L-fucose mutarotase
Amino acid sequence: MQYCLTLELKNDPELIATYEQYHSPKQVWPEVISAIRDSGITDMAIHRVGTTLIMILQTDDSFSFTEKAKQDAMNPKVQQWERLMEQFQNVGSNNQQSKWQLVERIFSLGEQVG
């Protein structure tokens, strides 16, 4: 399955640059990478336009947003990473599920006739 999610960053060039550094190759904590992979996410990419982040997830059949949230809530290292990332994100102190917003797919080339 493929999912697309969005999140808004704070409109601060220095914070955005630091956020991108945290997400550069080999900078995301290994425990966070393991939690992502263990949840059934087979590939993940995050893109940015202005302050908007766009996350594309590829998942296997075992993936569930609900189960991922439960596992993340029980993982102290993931919770530490989430708290660290909140300083860059334009979100309140809501739970993790409310940070990234699931985007509705309205078009697929593969579903078109012709």
About this structure: Confidence is low (pLDDT under 50) at residues 93-97.
